[in-house]
Write a structure and sequence with these properties.
homodimer, alpha+beta, NADH Oxidase, 2 domains, four-stranded antiparallel sheet, 32% helix
């Protein structure tokens, strides 16, 4: 299933074709693909090259570990993420290692790494669905996350499955239109909320 | 100047070739390229599709606006960012518009958008250098950033210039090796700090 974004300006195919499905195939992700996806995350930029990102991974190859990870999602996400072959929790170190001071950019830099991961996954024919709906306290306890680290998101990773495998309400959401705010609401010049001059009057 | 990452696993060329230079050419960025780069950011994923990212942009086409933006960087960054044709400040909305509740993922989602922007820039032959070193209070005041929004980073965007244009100390930094932690320090399974089984003993 393709859901290519209807862009106003041409962008790279991998960015246009990326979307977040719920209907995952249970086909395993090949270890070399998993490594490539994580390697992509590894090479993101970060403030002071701190590389604040950490990933906890569970695959169906180890059913007990997978069940443990699945149980740490919110119930709404468990309904469909149970079919994905790989679950990941993303975590950041909140301070700079060199001086123990707060790293204001840590979450932002995690986002850079996750976008790299997602792009590499897309390139390899895989899909990524990020989830804010996770049980953070349970994850902290289950995986013994140290005090100085923050649990941010869950990720389901795998090949696309069949929309028919989803409950009906989720089938509808899988097919809905992909929408974004116009550039005129996002890009300002000179002062807040003043659209940049190179953005057209129709907002694109 | 190329500084392709020495990866342990094959990753997409655009991710390998991305790096953050200081020696920018003063060649302007074509408006259609600027729009493509911002369009790429626009199509990132976000929690509840909130799209919390905002960008304030200054180009050398408007020298007063550029000088204003430049003066909002830390002095160390002004030394080289003065040569870039485009400066951007990244900002996030800290709450969900639908219910005014805190958006825990806002900074992370901004990172997703900035990584998309960076990838599109790389694809178009441009370079991006993100800066944590910015004068946040001055930016808030200069651009009248609303209470509910947080200023996160600055970005210099443009074509690569000539390393010789940099002060000597920055020339050295421009040439240093690109280093990252091994996967074994980033990817865990089952519990914290336990390297995933698919990561090799040498950490790759």
């Amino acid at each position: 299933m393709k859901r290519t974004a209807q862009t106003h300006h041409p962008i790279h195919t991998l960015l246009k074709d990326r979307w977040s499905p719920r209907a995952f195939s249970d086909k395993p992700v090949e270890p070399e693909k998993l490594l490539a996806v994580l390697e992509a995350a590894r090479w993101a930029a970060s403030a002071m090259n701190e590389q604040p990102w950490r990933f906890i991974i569970a695959t169906k190859k180890n059913p007990a570990e997978f069940e443990q990870a699945l149980s740490c999602l919110n119930e709404g996400n468990q309904r469909w993420a149970k079919d994905a072959p790989v679950l990941i929790f993303t975590i950041v170190k909140k301070t700079f290692t060199r001086n123990d001071r707060p790293n204001r950019a840590a979450l932002h830099d995690l986002g850079l790494a996750v976008a790299n991961l997602t792009l590499q996954a897309t390139e390899l024919g895989l899909h990524v669905h990020e989830m804010g709906g996770i049980q953070i306290d349970k994850i902290r306890e289950t995986y013994q996350i140290p005090e100085d680290y923050e649990v941010v998101t869950g990720i389901a990773l795998g090949y696309y499955g069949d929309i028919e495998q989803l409950p009906e309400d989720l089938q509808e959401r899988e097919k809905g239109p992909r929408q974004r705010k116009p550039l005129s609401e996002l890009i300002f010049t000179g002062t807040w909320a003043k659209p940049a001059s190179f953005v057209k009057n129709n907002g694109t």
